[in-house]
What we know:
The termini are far apart. With 199 residues, the chain is mostly helical. The protein has eleven helices and no strands. The chain has a single domain, classed as Endonuclease III, domain 1 (Orthogonal Bundle), CATH 1.10.340.
Amino acid sequence: MALHLTDNEAADALLTSDPFALLVGMLLDQQVAMELAFAGPLKIKERLGTLDVAAIAGADPEEFVAVFKQTPAVHRFPGSMAGRVQELAQVLLDEWDGDAAAIWTSGDPDGPTVLKRLKKLPGFGEQEARIFLALLGKQVGFAGAGWREASDPYGEEGSFRSVADIVSPDSLLRVRESKRAAKAAAKSATKVSASTIER
């Protein structure tokens, strides 16, 4: 199934064809717009000449940071995120033979197993792991038992909570609106609890 996460055909084609690119996009999806994060792997590939896992793990760290800093930057925090991408590549080499897709295909795993595997990756906390699992289930064809429950609430059918739900420009707008509303609700909940404490 072709992915449409960035509104950039070449970036989307790379995400569709390369599981490592998709994993890197999810890693970069922190404190930047979703489409910018998922366009990051294409920028890295164009500037480095490859998105090979071994080449990235073995790249000179300073040169790799320079790849992230070129305009337009791959991420607003180029130093730390470049380091994380290299760490991710090294873990994939050490534990998965350099095959990103093995995380969700090796041993015919169920949803909770894939969630555990994702949470062990550098830069993947609980939320990132659940969102990525939902993306695998909704758009990449992962059908391991219990993936919807393990990715809760992002696995919910018909929701517009995360990148897992982006299939078109219209759904991108709906996800962005939903995230904005969730942030506003969280902000007002914080204010309410702060005023309760003051009383």
